[in-house]
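Support case: adenosine-5'-diphosphate complex. Customer-provided input:
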Amino acid sequence: TSIKEGINLLWEGAGGTIPEKQKRLLAILSEESKRLIDLVNSLLDLSKMEAGMMTYSYEPGNLAPLIERAATEMIPLVEARKIAFRKEVETKLPMIRIDRERILQVLRNLIGNAVKFTPEGGRVKVVARFIHRGIEVSVSDTGPGIKKENLTNIFEKFHQAPFKHSNRIKGTGLGLAIVKHVIDAHGGRVWAESEPGQGSSFIFVLPV
Ligand code: ADP
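Agent response - structure generated as follows:
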């Protein structure tokens, strides 16, 4: 964090006026240090979860505002990629026992992946509905899809399905492993449905 703050101070001119070219370099440094912070946080989260040392604070909560927040955070990227984003959240979803921060992390991961893997001009849809004794949330996209043999192992850490243009898509392969830990800890289920070329859906169900 102090590296990032130092970069920001330089960018703002705390050390004197900065020429345009150096500003561009500082912007790259700032972006990369953010990625480093995210990576360290993901590694720490996952290590704690694997060691059974993650503490969850469960409270009765509503999924709707969390979905709204995760979706709102994604607006700049959605607009930049010209993606049609739709949200269908059933009104009056029942309150459930959740750790809000962790479920937000799940939603950020799934919606973030959907937007990241969907080519420009594609569609992403989030649906939340009340089903038998649970709330089901699905995040669907019109991205490249996932081969049948990878549908389960993408939830293992570091697993990244090979893509033709994979060098353009940055990632760590930790997001879905964290998603699975969090949903399991809530007594829920998470899985992926996809046909290559037909997009993907990531679905989780949390018990009511
Ligand atoms: P990362 O996105 O950092 O690579 P994740 O654990 O979130 O790590 O995802 C693991 C892998 O699962 C991805 O690298 C990709 O191969 C596949 N994947 C995840 N979400 C999608 C999606 N919406 N469409 C296609 N493939 C996906």
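Residues 20-50 form the longest helix (31 residues).

Case will auto-close in a few days if no follow-up is received.
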